[in-house]
Amino acid sequence: MTTPARIATPTTLPPVTLLLDTGDDRAVHHAAHQRAEPRSGRTTTDPTPHTNSLAYLALDLLRAMGRDSFARPDAERMSTDAAWRAVTCWTLTTGLEEAIVLRAHRLTPERLARLATWRAETGIRLVLIAHTPTPADEQQLRERLTTAQLTTLPAVRGTDAIMNAIGPPATRRRHGPPPSDHVNPLPDLPRSAVAFLSDCRRSLSEADFAHAHGQYQAGYAAARTWLARHIPAPPATPPAENTGPDETCAWQDMEGLRLFLARLTVLSPSPQHTLARVRGAQAGFLSRQLHLDVPDDLAAHAGPGITTVPITPHVAHILDTHLPNPLRAAAVAALLFTGTTRSLLSMTQIASIDENATRLAIDRDSRINVGMPPGPRHMYAIPPRARRILAAALQFRRRTPRTSDHLGLFARCFGTPDRFDHLIRDAGLPIPAIRHPHPAQDWHTAARCWHLSAPAPDVSAVWGRPPGAYP
Predict the structure, then answer these.
(1) Residue 46 lies in a domain
(2) Are 348 and 250 members of one domain?
(3) What is the pLDDT of residues 110-147, one digit of tens each?
(4) In a domain, 185, yes or no
(5) Does one domain contain both 349 and 418?
């Protein structure tokens, strides 16, 4: 889930804590570093020495958050304003609440002013640790703080008092990325739409059938649950028996149907798992007198569950640490969870993402055929672990000068092959959609659904569902 952006006002801003370490005690620095745990909302930043660059300070803050891939010599460089926007957006969307900044006595008024703006925009609790061995050093520091409009700061002195003000060390520090993903693979499954489970039972081993059957059950249960919440309106004029489906009996909410299919399969680890889930969903629709039609050969298409990569903890960690720019991280994440073409994804507008960052809707028809009525939008589900990345990208784009909701969210992310190749290289993740030939539209946008004129046949007989498997 995404963390709602905090709205800070001068009366609600937490006070800035000034810790005056006159002796430059090593224990104080050690305690400050032990306090840091970005996943718990706390960071500790040690500014790069021998530079007064505003951009370097922003990159230091990003590094403290765990986003340090810009340290590589060939990594993408961010401008000063872009780097500070990234700091603000990640702070608002990841739940960062406390930031300790070491060696504050070395910060210029301009750098302190940037920290003050960051605090004002995010409501973060700012802790400044400074080494002031003489009264003159303290006076100089306070003059700089006043210039940066950080005034009336209570000072804490003495090692014991400073250690108490810093707080206890983090209790759940974790080093290194999450473990790699492990999935029970499935062999090639029968493509039959009728008697799918029966064909699976005949052709698969007992263990493989159990895994395929579990995916099938998940699709069936998801379809039944979704249909219970989206009761379809019966057609105004029932179609005559023994006639094919027409517009009068077609499912009307195509965008809702596409979004359901995307949510069903966006975390599917392989096309085989996707096929089993879709067959189960078809059985669930049939049990409610609805015929869900999908392309016969899903693997020939692109889209959710076919050319996507599940956003697992390991993948989310890579996106967090390898792509500090929110727009770049969101662009790669979108390629992973949509599995669609770059040309279609480049049409994503800022308004294409809902405020909770749960779905992405691309209005391709109105972008290509200007002035024509839009058709059903291409709907994609944003998995939970990618939502804060998309939310950060929305914040980043909306804070960019001269922007509006109709402009492109991923503008200049896929513009040139070199830029795109570098983006993928920085992520270090395989993206099947790049290698897929995309011979047709994404499979879930080609799906159709009709009301049946006659009572649905027994699902267990037609689809091979073992009697009693479902309520």
Answers:
(1) yes
(2) no
(3) 999 999 999 999 999 999 999 999 999 999 999 999 99
(4) no
(5) yes
> Which of 65-74, 216-225, 344-353 is predicted least confidently?
65-74
Note whether residue 186 is domain-resident. Answer: no
Structural contact between residues 238 and 450, judged by C-beta atoms closer than 8 angstroms: no
Instruction: Examine the domain organization and report whether 318 and 362 are in the same domain.
Output: yes
User: 173 burial class (0-12, 13-18, 19+ CB within 10 angstroms)?
Assistant: exposed
Residues 317 and 291 in one domain: no
What's residue 405's pLDDT? Answer: 82
Question: Do 51 and 121 sit in the same domain of this protein?
Answer: yes
Is residue 368 assigned to a domain?
yes
Any bridge partners for residue 49, and if so which?
none
335 and 296 in one domain?
no
The mean pLDDT of 160-181, rounded to a whole number, is 83
| The total number of structural domains that make up the chain | 3
Tell me the per-residue pLDDT of 256-279, one tens digit each, with 9 for 90 and over: 999 999 999 999 999 999 999 999
Q: Are residues 449 and 303 in the same domain?
A: yes
pLDDT at residue 8, as a whole number:
43
- Which pLDDT score is estimated for 39? 87
Q: Which of 149, 166, 183 is the last residue of a domain?
A: 166
| One domain for residues 160 and 73 | yes
Which domain covers residue 32, as residue numbers?
17-166
Examine the pLDDT at 245 and tell me if it is beyond 50. Answer: yes
The average confidence (pLDDT) of the chain is 86
Is the pLDDT reported for residue 289 higher than 60?
Answer: yes
Check pLDDT > 50 for residue 163: yes
Structure-block tokens of residue 351: 């308004």
Q: Which of 406, 224, 431, 238 is CA-nearest to residue 332?
A: 431
Does residue 19 surpass a pLDDT of 70?
yes
Contacts of 171 (CB under 8 A, 6+ apart): none
